[in-house]
Amino acid sequence: DTEVTQTPKHLVMGMTNKKSLKCEQHMGHRAMYWYKQKAKKPPELMFVYSYEKLSINESVPSRFSPECPNSSLLNLHLHALQPEDSALYLCASSQAGTAAYEQYFGPGTRLTVT
Amino acid sequence: QKEVEQNSGPLSVPEGAIASLNCTYSDRGSQSFFWYRQYSGKSPELIMSIYSNGDKEDGRFTAQLNKASQYVSLLIRDSQPSDSATYLCAVNLNSGGSNYKLTFGKGTLLTVNP
Q1: Which of A13, A74, B42, B94 is an S-S bond match for A23, by CB 3.0 to 4.6 Å?
Q2: With contacts defined as CB-CB under 8 Å, which chain A residues touch B27?
Q3: Distance separating alpha carbons of residues A34 and B46, to the nearest angstrom
Q4: What is the pLDDT of residues B92-105, one digit of tens each?
């Protein structure tokens, strides 16, 4: 059983909507990640938070806004998305944010932008 | 461009056979190597991590690492139909300065035929 949870499981939103994806981990990890995965492609890193500070932003468009309220929670705020942003959004966590440690993924949120 | 490359597949093996999945990486400084399994429509699941040259066994899975050849592999013994999935190789690659990020190969689709 995964100890990284994500809500919602599915989300359909229009291009003018504002919505948020939520992630929570219960493993005491100090690094959390957002990845985007399109069909038949590997996950692509979007953001890394290490000790609740944003450490990596992979040049993600500003319509995606991450937030880390505490070491267990990670949010991704969505605004004015495009249909090409439809994908599986994955949250992951690890002991620290150097990519040297094992990352554990949540079940993902499948996002459809109409 | 620092990369992780995998056999494109698909790889098809009969039930009970050994499945061999291969991966090469471009960054000689990489220290951490991971194999994830991803079933269709699900999130990646960590199945093996390896940090030192040689073999690491966990049940029916064996990971092999050769840093000199920049090669990592995953062997699945006594393959079962439930092993049918996409297998993602992931390596921590230097992304500039002291930053490392987990970089995935494109994945190999494995089908185990009953």
Answers
A1: A74
A2: none
A3: 16
A4: 887 777 777 899 99
Place of tokens 């999130």: B43
3-class SS of residue B82: helix
Query: Rounded to 5 degrees, what are φ and ψ at A111?
Result: -105, 130
Average pLDDT over residues B36-51: 97
Q: What is the pLDDT of residue B100?
A: 78
Query: What is the bridge-based pairing of β-strands A109-113 and A10-13?
Result: parallel
Averaged pLDDT, A8-24: 96
Contact A19, A109 (CB under 8 A): no
Q: Please tell me the total number of residues recorded for chain A in this structure.
A: 114
Contact B106, B25 (CB under 8 A): no
Distance CA B103, CA A33 (A): 13
Which of A2, A102, A109 should we substitute to test contact with B (largest number of B Cβ atoms within 10 Å)?
A102
Q: What share of chain B is helix, strand, coil (3-state, %, to 5)?
A: 5, 60, 40
Locate A76 and state its tokens. 């991704």
Sign for the CA dihedral angle at A89, A1, B48, A28 comes to positive
Q: Give chain B positions within 8 Å (CB) of A58.
A: 101
Residue to test with chain B: of A98, A110, A112, most B Cβ within 10 A: A98
